[in-house]
Inverse folding.
């Protein structure tokens, strides 16, 4: 190994390049992991991407990966490449807080399936990343612990709820990251940080050990700086899990092969639909300009682009903010101060009900309380059919819009977000404005289909990152990678 190599030489490499060099023993996993830990120590005080850094554990895992590679027994294509893990996946060797005071310091007795798959693949876990409390938010400002800043402009949000993972990638603190996507929490942070994020088909990545926000919407997924890196990680974490009752027992498409094929840049014969409802009024001019430029590049690659009408997408926001809070109301009932986590008022002078109420009041933040109250109301007697029941009918109509569209096109595209990242604090007191930031991403979660955000450049009006959203049918995740990689190659470097 060269004595002149610097940490920047290492952290600036893609995960695929790092994996190749580690496999060829040109770099060691320990060297790569230490370089990223040094990068975290150097800059994360300003950015706040990590809630917990496990240096000793990461270096031990890196050494184990090096030993396996030296013995000719590399456990995966990404063996030795370190990763940042969103703090909503359980880990036996680090706290899992979900960005909430109600779980401060809690260490799980078991690993999430995604965590276990990363370990089995020889991927060192650098630490746990910051997030909106229980994945409820669009800016990572709802974390009970700290605000995460966007590396492109530290006065702005890094997206949410997985802003910590996206910021860690964009600032070269990690070459790979794991996020979760309930209404856009992987794709939206990816868009505003110029990184790549994928929401896989619902049920293809295990939710066992993923602390639930909304069980019918939550989906873990891969995050990276390139389409190929993200595909390599997708391959590691996907697959059937009998411990997850919603896990689909089907073969996962060859996403890595699709990414490599797409990089050749030929989209001849591919039909792409532009969603009429996900552009126009309310969208920033620079975002629309970037989107139109992406459409032209896709056409130049040989794709045919047509406009597609998805009329029920207009109701996605309303349906989502009835379904999600209803499931939140049910899922967060487990935090009762009796079994684990925070306990307030347990001094012998309060009843169990009073301890429960005091604990929830102290442990849950404003946004979580807001959604619990909305969900409890929507599920209450006399209102269930009018609110939750109607929202589920709209969900079915949105799934029907997707199904009809995919009869005529291979994928759908739109901007990932209506605007570039807004300033920290700008929308904290305006929940509806905050919710509208996820306008483009919500329909995919309601339908359970697959989607990717890939960087489409910097907006001409403010110079901040813009994302292109690519959507594909359920179990056709490989289409995302083929088209995303082709577009990435045609687009070229950003910034």
């Amino acid at each position: 190994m060269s004595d002149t190599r610097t940490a920047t030489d290492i952290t600036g490499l893609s995960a695929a390049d790092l994996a190749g060099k580690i496999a060829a023993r040109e770099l060691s996993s320990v060297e790569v992991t230490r370089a990223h830990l040094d990068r975290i120590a150097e800059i994360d005080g300003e950015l706040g991407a990590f809630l917990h850094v496990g240096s000793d554990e990461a270096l031990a895992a890196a050494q184990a990966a090096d030993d396996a590679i030296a013995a000719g027994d590399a456990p995966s294509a990404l063996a030795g490449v370190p990763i940042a893990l969103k703090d909503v996946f359980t880990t036996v060797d680090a706290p899992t807080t979900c960005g909430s005071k109600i779980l401060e310091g809690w260490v799980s007795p078991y690993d999430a399936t995604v965590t276990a798959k990363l370990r089995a693949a020889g991927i060192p876990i650098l630490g746990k990343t910051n997030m909106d409390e229980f994945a409820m938010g669009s800016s990572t400002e709802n974390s009970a612990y700290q605000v995460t800043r966007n590396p492109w402009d530290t006065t702005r949000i890094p997206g949410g709820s997985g802003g910590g993972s996206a910021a860690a990638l964009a600032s070269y603190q990690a070459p790979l990251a794991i996020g979760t996507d309930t209404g856009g929490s992987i794709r939206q942070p990816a868009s505003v940080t110029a990184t790549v994020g994928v929401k896989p088909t619902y049920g293809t990545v295990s939710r066992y050990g993923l602390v639930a926000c909304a069980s019918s919407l939550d989906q873990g997924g891969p995050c990276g700086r390139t389409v190929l890196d993200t595909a390599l990680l997708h391959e590691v974490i996907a697959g059937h899990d009998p411990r997850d009752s919603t896990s689909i027992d089907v073969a996962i498409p060859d996403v890595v092969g699709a990414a490599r094929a797409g990089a050749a840049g030929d989209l001849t014969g591919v039909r792409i639909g532009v969603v009429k409802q996900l552009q126009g009024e309310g969208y920033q001019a620079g975002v629309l300009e970037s989107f139109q430029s992406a459409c032209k590049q896709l056409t130049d690659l040989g794709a045919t682009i047509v406009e597609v009408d998805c009329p029920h997408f207009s109701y996605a926001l309303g349906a989502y903010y009835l379904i999600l809070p209803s499931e939140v109301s049910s899922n967060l009932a487990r935090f009762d101060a009796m079994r684990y986590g925070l306990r307030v008022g347990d001094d012998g002078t309060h009843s169990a009900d009073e301890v429960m109420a005091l604990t929830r009041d102290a442990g849950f933040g404003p946004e979580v309380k807001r959604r619990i109250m909305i969900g409890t109301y929507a599920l209450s007697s006399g209102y269930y059919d009018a609110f939750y029941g109607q929202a589920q009918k709209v969900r079915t109509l949105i799934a029907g819009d997707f199904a009809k569209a995919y009869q005529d096109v291979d994928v759908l595209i739109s901007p990932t977000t209506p605007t570039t990242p807004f300033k920290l604090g700008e929308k904290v007191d305006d929940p509806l404005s905050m919710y509208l930031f996820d306008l483009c991403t919500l329909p995919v979660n309601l339908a359970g289909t697959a989607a990717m955000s890939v960087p489409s450049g910097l907006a001409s009006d403010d110079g901040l990152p813009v994302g292109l959203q690519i959507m594909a049918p359920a179990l056709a995740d490989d289409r995302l990678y083929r088209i995303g990689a082709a577009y990435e190659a045609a687009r070229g470097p950003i910034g």
